[in-house]
Amino acid sequence: MARPDTLIVCLVLIAAGMAAQPANADGHVLHPHDEVHNWGVWGKDDQKGAANYMTDERVVEAARLIRTGKRFSLAIPIDATGPVFPGRLNPHHTMVATGTDYAAGLSGPLDFGVYRFADDYIYMPLQGSTQWDGLSHGWYGDTLYNGVPQTQIGATGAAKLGMENLKDSMIGRGVLIDVVAFKGGPLPSGYSIRRADLEGALKKQGSKVLPGDIVIVRTGVVPHFYTLENAVERAEFWARPQAGIASDVVPWIKQTQVAAVATDNIAFERMPNEDDPDHLAPLHGNMLRDMGVYIGEIWWLEDLAADCAKDGRYEFFLAAQPLHIPGAVGSPLNPVAIK
Amino acid sequence: MARPDTLIVCLVLIAAGMAAQPANADGHVLHPHDEVHNWGVWGKDDQKGAANYMTDERVVEAARLIRTGKRFSLAIPIDATGPVFPGRLNPHHTMVATGTDYAAGLSGPLDFGVYRFADDYIYMPLQGSTQWDGLSHGWYGDTLYNGVPQTQIGATGAAKLGMENLKDSMIGRGVLIDVVAFKGGPLPSGYSIRRADLEGALKKQGSKVLPGDIVIVRTGVVPHFYTLENAVERAEFWARPQAGIASDVVPWIKQTQVAAVATDNIAFERMPNEDDPDHLAPLHGNMLRDMGVYIGEIWWLEDLAADCAKDGRYEFFLAAQPLHIPGAVGSPLNPVAIK
Amino acid sequence: MARPDTLIVCLVLIAAGMAAQPANADGHVLHPHDEVHNWGVWGKDDQKGAANYMTDERVVEAARLIRTGKRFSLAIPIDATGPVFPGRLNPHHTMVATGTDYAAGLSGPLDFGVYRFADDYIYMPLQGSTQWDGLSHGWYGDTLYNGVPQTQIGATGAAKLGMENLKDSMIGRGVLIDVVAFKGGPLPSGYSIRRADLEGALKKQGSKVLPGDIVIVRTGVVPHFYTLENAVERAEFWARPQAGIASDVVPWIKQTQVAAVATDNIAFERMPNEDDPDHLAPLHGNMLRDMGVYIGEIWWLEDLAADCAKDGRYEFFLAAQPLHIPGAVGSPLNPVAIK
Amino acid sequence: MARPDTLIVCLVLIAAGMAAQPANADGHVLHPHDEVHNWGVWGKDDQKGAANYMTDERVVEAARLIRTGKRFSLAIPIDATGPVFPGRLNPHHTMVATGTDYAAGLSGPLDFGVYRFADDYIYMPLQGSTQWDGLSHGWYGDTLYNGVPQTQIGATGAAKLGMENLKDSMIGRGVLIDVVAFKGGPLPSGYSIRRADLEGALKKQGSKVLPGDIVIVRTGVVPHFYTLENAVERAEFWARPQAGIASDVVPWIKQTQVAAVATDNIAFERMPNEDDPDHLAPLHGNMLRDMGVYIGEIWWLEDLAADCAKDGRYEFFLAAQPLHIPGAVGSPLNPVAIK
Lengths: 339, 339, 339, 339
Known about the structure:
The structure is a homotetramer of 339-residue chains. The first copy, chain A, folds into 2 domains: 4-85 and 126-338, 3-Layer(bba) Sandwich (Glucose Oxidase, domain 1), CATH 3.50.30; 92-121, no CATH class.
């Protein structure tokens, strides 16, 4: 039986969740907090959310999926060409020491003996390439996951729920759900991926989703973006609705107890919301704030998907740890699937 | 027998290596190219170097080291406090959308419906925290690994030997060589870690180094840096010689066929060079250019080392993939050891 | 007589100012708001503060000071070597297209016909070189200049009092007060520049301060910084109290109706506060928040001061417009004195 | 008579110029170097070029144009909305300390006593808003202005011809040539502004161009850009030819001995070149490399032009000094016209 103080904490958490429920939520745009939340499940001070499902035991089990040693990077190039959400900059890589300078005899500042070197910098949004959204990245009302007040997220970073909480995590079992293969091609603009699509694809594949998994949904959107030929086509792409996860998938995510859902589209969910287009990405609120489930975006799945289609194995060990950036609300990463 | 054209290629490569040997190298500062090089070993166009030792088979073998599921991040925080080599900037993390703005009612630009979000950016040197030095990062003479001309490394990045070559790699068997434990404490300023230190520590541990391994050498330097209390102490730290790998370790690295050597010091090797202090870091030339062996710097080993001391297992599965940054000469990463 | 609604506005402004007076201000650390403020002087919605003193008429008068055409930049180099307050980064300049790349034949990405070009970027704090502090940069209590709530200054910039308000301003009459010449040498660490110093120097020079002037006080601190020889000396410099303006100068600034005060020290005022060292830079509150007087920091005065000593003219036309960065709380600039 | 060594220097300079003439220049795309160059005019080591025309005397004369004291900023906002050439990033302004954080009680890191402050950073191309192109920004062949080899422009900046050479300059007489008023409206896409347009507008205005002037040509392109309503329209804008200066203006610029030509279009000249569209911006070569005349781009002229139309005075004092960034090949600035 729960100790009384735990009970009080839970009641407070539930009340906080209800209070935070936005007045204009009608059951379509957002699933009610108390139907889907994981607040208090791992303690009232927990900052890791559903990453807690990735236990040591599950990591050991996942390791048994490593049978051929083949490795697949699931990251797009971090460069100026990727599908970065308008308003964010593309990553910008600069060199501050080059071989061409040495060749030109312009190496004065770099003269440290026989050794020569090149050096570089990057300026980039932490949500501007293959990435994790952290639990401090999104919410609704005044509170984030586990009741953390939004006033904890300031100009010096996230005082709580920052990416440092994941530095030893996001490594375990991954499962690819190939909706592109299931539907017979890349999803069209604005397609809503429903629970039936995911379950249909899983059945076709013969795959199972287990607690603690990182579920990876293939949509074909990111590969499609790279086929666009010029700036006009890219501008038109951004003006259209985006294919993504539909609202009825949220309860399934809760029930399956997965740690994270990653996709090869722009922002996980169908955008704007199909029930009410005044809301851009409300399901992020259910995911990050209510359930504490992490969101992966702009992943690259083509190489992995081709291999899965060949060997029929859609499960793998996945090393998807973020960078260790304290106070960050998201992180670029290079997820590597190992079969 | 080698086919004639392969032979010619090898001769050209050897000649190029000899030609590139700096006139002032005397056998102390740099090991002669032809004694230690791996040029042509994986083909004349190879850009991965010793990462080729990390074969699929070795990854499968390494996976058997996952027994408890315990995970250890080997990354320092990416923030303003780390031991970044003078002349480079500390990473700089900024927020462009915050919860405090929403709380203040200043959320106009961020109003996309019920969903609220925080967003952030980073400006950082790719060699300014826990990192890999790529093969395009360092060389001597006019050529880099496998004879790539230095003129391939320009202001738009490394046209060859960039970090994109490692996007599916640097995952496999790791072995910790705890020189701190072997010597009875953190290494003093300017200490030269010799082959005998590494072999002594390995023997004490009962550990073996295998081909394709990522060898990790514990020095105690990075933890020491974090104990410094103010800017004066930190400035004095940088003015002193740095503890690191000595010259006689280079042939051992060649013989063991490891893929990479990472350390918890500033820049892998003893700096400046103990044989000739006019050379800051010449062994980087032997490592990156001649052998194609990767260098890891500024790693965090305290948590892992404590666990190894406890369970006596110094070998583990290591997920140390870099970010996928085309043309980058190095990369930050969050290496995670899994036992 | 003031119209009733104006009177009410003034009372509200005064009340707001009083309410904002911090409980621990004792008359030493901060001058009371109601003794020195300029709120409402230029209308309740004014966002330019004392820049309003730089009227068209005064600009015409100032133009008559242009007699020889000699020009003096009052800016330090924007580079990695300047005296940037710890916690801020030095400006970081990078090149993304170079001549050495063309020389090396690595110009593919830059091939636009016969024309060749170099291109560059900068990452810098807007308060990290010769600069203006804007009225949105500093305050005390909950309000900034003219009662603007601190909640107007968020992660997307200053919704009010941003540097865009100065885009047509900060050009007019400048007067150098050479305290170094008056005191016989650069000011020592922690020296408090009092009203008597300024008035003594002015008298010695035969100079007058007029309304709308930009007053420039020479301390010798920035030139001293550039004589420091290594990182240890620079760390020690930052650990010592800084020479700067003392508290009794504030009422003089109010009375003289100057638009701005600029100095060749780090942060205008003596730091920490000499009356209570728990307060780092409280006079900024009187300057920016109460009086709406702009602060210039880290200016370079050596060339101008030498010329003034030679020709005995300490007054000049000054072009000190900031960059046009909307929402910025400060700006780098290159102030040029013209005699 | 020139001393023999001067003569030799001149011959060498001329020979260098001829040698550097690109093989594919046919008299249309580029004016021959020896017809338009200013190499050696101000000495063989000169790095200021036509800024030398802005003598002290001309500054004194220009000051007489200050009659009303009205000031007009000629800078667009430095923000995410401006017409930045594709491939460059828009300036990116971030806040690292805010009032909303203080309001939320999240001010721990900023607690320095009563004083509160906001702080900000910028990442920007130096050619990404209202700007000067420096003499190190553009060239053809292997050499820049005055025979400086392209190998002087490396990853650590411009070793010669950097913006530091202008820190005391670009202040003097400005003259607006309102081609929009002359042609009866903003110039259409791809319009070539010919010498007759400039002379016609000058005659209509009753204006004269004098040596050392900064000539400012109004095209209407930048204001037109700001009327574009979405990303698709902006992408289409960049896909069309750009209105700008035509080839026959180059000799006129040489003859008038102006220091600089600035425009309110994207990149000064008609792009691509109308004689041979394989060349994007060859006239930059004649301007920067041959004549040493500075180019101003993306200026904002609407407010100034309206005032000139009203009072009939198209001449003014112009404070157009760049930032003092050593080694920079260009600089943002806030040019202010004073009438």
